[in-house]
Design goal:
Elements lengths: L1 H14 L7 H17 L10 E5 L8 E5 L5 E4 L9 H16 L4 H22 L7 E4 L9 E4 L5
Antiparallel strand pairs: 1-2, 2-3, 4-5
Length: 156
């Protein structure tokens, strides 16, 4: 899935301009083929849930999209997540919404996300050993080539 997104972004940026490569255009371009594969009974569908992010100049301009295995997607602001179960998703949603209401700082966010990571890891590990949670923070700095960094839950 990520390779298709990169290929699309590359071609779109080359044929048009970098400013034309938006989150909305990427998920819309990927949604169609995923929907087609999901509804084609003669072949195996893609089984992937993907999270995409577009970092803006300010947090209010950040946007996120979750593309589901059936090709449907939803966009949102503030934060986004992909969870293995609805129980874990509800817990993540509640905690992140609470963080945003209480005034978010990077230190608070990292601590809360590590707590969520630990709790989620315990819940998911009880179901399947190969489903391990992952936390990614987006970096607004233009000094870095990569705009994200992965937290491992224990230390950075």
């Amino acid at each position: 899935m990520w390779l298709a997104a990169i290929d699309f972004a590359h071609h779109e940026g080359f044929n048009r301009s970098e400013q034309d490569v938006t989150l909305q255009r990427v998920v819309t371009a990927l949604s169609g083929p995923v929907k087609k594969a999901f509804s084609d009974f003669s072949s195996s569908p893609f089984v992937a849930r993907s999270l995409f992010a577009e970092v803006g100049a300010t947090p209010d301009q950040d946007s996120y999209a979750v593309l589901d295995y059936d090709g449907d997607y939803n966009t949102r602001r503030g934060f986004a997540y992909v969870a293995g179960s609805s129980e874990v998703g509800d817990a993540i949603e509640a905690r992140l919404a609470e963080l945003l209401r209480d005034g978010l700082t990077q230190k608070k966010a990292e601590k809360a996300l590590r707590d969520i990571w630990s709790a989620t890891r315990e819940q998911e590990a009880a179901k399947a050993d190969d489903l391990l949670p992952e936390i990614v923070l987006l970096d607004r700095s233009e000094l870095r080539e990569n705009r994200f960094r992965v937290l491992d839950g224990e230390k950075d």
